[in-house]
Amino acid sequence: MTTPRRRYAARRRSKPTGSPISGEPAFVLVGILRRPHGLQGEVLVSLETDFPERLQPGARLYVGEDHRPVTISKRREHNDGLLLAFEEFPSVEDVEGLRNVPLSAAVADRPPLPAGEYYQHQLLGLEVIEDSGEPLGTLVDILHTGGNEVFVVRPEDGGELLLPAIDQVVRAVDLKAKRMIVHLLPGLRAG
Q: How far is CA 154 from its chain centroid?
């Protein structure tokens, strides 16, 4: 018999996660197009970005899995999301087929972060090394909990190590070397 946590971990292991280890993705998700609104080609967008201010008229975004380029022509607030209109889709008929379609931005267009902060896709695939020099595995997932985030590290021999994303644990991140140095607090290592 398996526990819900083990079933969740098995599902997580069966899905590809994050960036390919060899490099960053070309696009990042900024929203999901939900449904048409009105007759002028507006679409309700649920936001998936911490930077909604970049979704302004004139901004270049990409629609769908094939990343078709679009340009925002109009933006207005609506409940917990945004209503966006695109130059390429001027009528409600043009946007009718865009329900539940991803809306992405080019990684090259992402806003810079303050020193010491990283985009999630930059961390996925990093080699995680204990401050004593022992390799612990690869960072394969980030869990968002009520408090802090939790890094899921997969050792080469299988299993997983869960590390809280706090300053006492995460000592250094070196994106060029694709490495994260951590300090294991008592009780973090299983067994």
A: 19
